[in-house]
Amino acid sequence: MEKMKAVRFNQKGDIKNLVVEEIEKPTPKQGELLIKVHASAINPSDAFNVLGRFQITTLPRTPGRDFAGIVVDGPPEWLNKEVFGTGGYSGFTFDGTHAEYVIATPETVAIKPENLSLIDAASIGVGFLTAYLALDTANIKEGENVLVIGARGAVGSAAVQITKFLKARPIGTFTNNPLPEIGADFVDTSTEDLKKKVLDLTDQKGVDIVIDTVGHPAIFEKAFSSLKVRGRYVVMTVGRSDNKYISFDGLDFYRRELRLFGLNTLNYAREDAVKAFNILKPGFESDALRAPKNIKQYKLDQCIEAYEYVNTKPKEKIVFTPDTGETQLSPPQPTPISTPFSSILTLRHAAMISTWIDRLLKTNNEILGGYNPLIWKTDDDTWAPEADSFIFSLKNSSDFSHNTSYPIISRVKDKSKAILYRSMSKGPWFGSCDLGMGDVIDPKNWYCELLSYDRPIRMTGESWFSIVDYEVFQICKAI
């Protein structure tokens, strides 16, 4: 019987009840998918679940709602596909995603957008699903004005992006500190009168929709009165238990034919999430929608620290990246990356490069590399834009046809910072700090940190590392 690691809790009420246990690795039934989890996000609702805020939760339980990974067992047409998902009572009435493997069905997972890493895909789950469902509940239409209460948070920022993607106009609220530049009008509720500012921004008409991600009674009253005739208001959370009641003018409510909706994402199954993500997929692939920029990674063994950090309402998105060893592909199935990442090299070519290299990292059998379609030159820290550049991590093998190690390919995400030309004292660099030589005086001291490319190629958490040797190859195009 194979085992896997999973975060578990047998009692509610305290984050310290979390433990990491070795439990039975799930076996897929006919038609099911076994997914190796590469990333699973921790949402505030996951922490609330452990703290006992949800009566429906049965124990013992593995928490977690969002995940992204690679299909390693199941129907042949699904093997090695990169998928992600969320939704339903995952982590509440059945075991969730804070584990090394999860079981799903083809109907309950979405194919990952090509330009998102698996970590990115895991980070968008509950936030973007909730935002989409709220706007869909309100029956958003092109050109409408949408007020987003709490536009700084995961759901709020997603709602602003989706509103723009659906060709409506977002107006966001924040308190004290400016919001990131995401192309919307904003109201600082700490210094501005919410209703007055909204009316000023809408030619005194009011907004068509309010998406309330905060649930504070004082904010509700002002936002509700900012609606235009037949306006729609969506509530998805409430304040503390002693501050959970809201009130409004009933006469005004019926005379202006307003609509008030409640939204509970637990009532939406994983299949519903897939439908939502398929609608949003073109937005991610066109960069109209973007995953959170600040993502902090933890290992499963750090579950208490990670959950406690989520409880502090951090600005970063918190994601588990389980250590599950090497992904075993199933030859002759296709590689997980189905689209060309270079006009010259394929994934197989990249793996073949490993057979040319006889010097590796000092600590393991790992080979790191990158493809620069341009030239290397010395300069004073200038950028070279390039769309075809990529970096990779491989395991050495004398025969790739028998090498089942999974190559990690990281394509350039910020094309304006694909290549960095350093000074004479520095070696070649890919991206801001994604892969580069520290100093020519010590050419075996290298640096690797995810910034400009779409996925990390090292999972150790250490940015600086030592190598045994490095080589540079030139690839010549046919004339």
From TrEMBL:
CDD domains named among the record's database cross-references: MDR_like_2
Alphabetized InterPro entries for the sequence: ADH-like_C (IPR013149), ADH-like_N (IPR013154), ER (IPR020843), GroES-like_sf (IPR011032), NAD(P)-bd_dom_sf (IPR036291), Zinc-ADH_QOR/CCCR (IPR051603)
Organism field: Dentiscutata erythropus
Keyword check for Mitochondrion: no
Domain called Enoyl reductase (ER): residue spans: 13-320
GO molecular function list: oxidoreductase activity
Keywords: NADP
SUPFAM superfamilies, per database record: GroES-like, NAD(P)-binding Rossmann-fold domains
Protein name: 14947_t:CDS:1
